[in-house]
Amino acid sequence: MARRGAELRKHILLTAKDVFLEMGFERASMDVLAARAETSKRTLYAHFESKDKLFLAVVDLVRELYLDKLKTPAHYGDDPAQAVTLFCGRFLQMLVWGPSLRTCRLGIAEADRLPEAAGRYYEAIFDTAEERLATFLGDRYGLPAPDARSTARDLLGRTLYPRFVRALFGVDELRDDWPEESSIPTDIDLAPIRTAVTTLLPAAPAAPSGRR
Fold first, then answer.
1. DSSP H stretches of helix in 24-127
2. Which candidate, 120, 131, 57, places its Cα nearest to that of 91?
3. Among candidates 189, 146, 143, 185, which has minimal Cα distance to 166?
4. Whose CA is closest to 68, among 124, 117, 11, 107?
5. How far apart are the C-alpha atoms of 80 and 78, rounded to whole Å?
6. pLDDT in tens, 12-49
C-alpha cells in the first residue's frame, strides 16, 4: 500500500535525515531525496516547498527523537546524585553516537547559510538538556532558578569535555550501533561526572517539590 499523508511525510523526513548525513546538504538534491524516498519530486515539493524547509523539518524530527530518548533526570532513579550522574552520562552517550555526531557537524557546516536550522539544533540538543537538568536541580536540591541553570550548564560542560570535543574533531572513533540506556556505565566513564556532581551540588538535597 502506498504511503499517504502523515505517514508519507514521516517517511520522507526519516529518509532525508539519512541522505543529508550521507551526502551533506549541498550534494543532497531534491531529485536524490525523492528517489531515495521512493516518491516523485512533485510529491516531495507538495510536502516541503524547498530543500531548506525540508532540512529545517529534519532538524525538528531529530529534536523529537533525541528528547524522547534523553528523557529527564528523574527518569534515572530516586537518588538525586545518581540520577544527575546518569542523565549527564546519557547526554554524552547520545552525543558521541555516530549519527548524532554527524548531525551536529552538519548543523555547524550549514550555520552560516541556515542559521535558523543551526539554532534549532542547538536548542534541541544542548539548551533543552540544560533546561531539564536545571529544573531537576531546582526541584530536588532547592537551587534558585539562576543558580540551577548555571550549575546545570557547568555540569554538562564538564560532562562534554574532552570526549565530545575529541569525537567532534574525529580524534575518537565513532560507533554507529544505537547506544542503549542500560550500557551508560560501560560506554561512559562516569567517575569524572560523579566528581563534578559531588563538587557542584549540595550534599543534602531538598525534598521534591512535586514538579517533574
1. 30-36, 41-47, 51-70, 80-95, 98-109, 115-122
2. 131
3. 189
4. 124
5. 6
6. 999 999 999 899 898 999 999 999 999 999 999 999 99
The strand pairing partners of 97, in sequence order, are 175
Contacts of 96 (CB under 8 A, 6+ apart): 163, 164, 167, 172, 174, 175
Domain range 5-49, CATH architecture: Orthogonal Bundle (1.10)
Residue 51 CA to residue 30 CA, distance in Å, equals 7
Nearest to 55 by CA among 125, 129, 119: 119
Strand, coil or helix: 90:
helix
pTM of the model: 0.89
DSSP string, 107-170: HHHTTTT-HHHHHHHHIIIIIHHHHHHHHHHHHHH---HHHHHHHHHHHHHHHHTTHHHHHHTT
Give φ, ψ of 96 to 5 degrees. Answer: -95, 5
Q: Which string of DSSP letters, residue by residue, matches 195-208?
A: HHHHHHS-SSPPPP
pLDDT in tens, 118-174: 998 999 899 999 999 999 999 999 999 999 999 999 999 999 999 999 999 999 999
